[in-house]
Amino acid sequence: MAKPVVIVVGADKGGVGKTTVSRTLLDYFSANNVQTRAFDTESPRGTLKRFHPDITEIVDMTTTADQMKIFDTLNSGPAVTVIDVRAGLLSPALASLRDIGFLDAARSGQITFAVFHILGPSIASLDEIAETAGFMGGAKYFLVKNFINDTQFFQWDQATYNSYFHRIKDATDLTIPKLNEMAYEQVEVSSVPFLKFVANKGINDDAANYSFVLRGYVRHWLANVWSEYDRIKLTDLVGAKSAKGEK
């Protein structure tokens, strides 16, 4: 049986585009034929579930019952589990994973564990790295600079960033580029995955009538995001081969 893979996407600050990154991950795995399920911890409403309703379940990760729903089923569901952690809950969520023995299981090689830590532009966001560093033993740690909201990382100089970045052994940084505002808004209004928007399809694969221009912007942006995922060998991490095809 393949080793289960758990990917946590989170930040201790809101408004940094965390769920957008989760959506690109789900699209990437779908395009590479990797069976994936997702948990949306924006309980009770959920944001990720709006775009990927078929594979996403809304949970409250602070409750034992919902922790069991996620972690007691790792060996019986799809190989990859993506958990979109609510803003402000990354450090508490990692502490919970430590307390239930999940981090020990990852350290011993029973589970592949990765954290996508979405950074905001402030120094406070860099301080989060120091907070999460203690939980990263046995995890693949990705620091994500997300420009989706036209974020300017003006408060950082490279030396300051490096001083935080190098605190974590084997950390990898990656960049999510900016997406044209009108294109981003149209996908939001359409409530479909980026992949379906590009393919001009509705949520049930019915024909849609999205703008050719905006679809082009999304296609180009998504290809750039996926090239970052290819660069960090994300399909290798989850034990799959990358499907080379049109993005």
Automatic annotation (TrEMBL):
Q: What is this protein called?
A: CobQ/CobB/MinD/ParA nucleotide binding domain-containing protein
SUPFAM superfamilies, sorted: P-loop containing nucleoside triphosphate hydrolases (SSF52540)
Read off the Gene3D superfamilies from this record: P-loop containing nucleotide triphosphate hydrolases (3.40.50.300)
The highest taxon in the source lineage is: Eukaryota
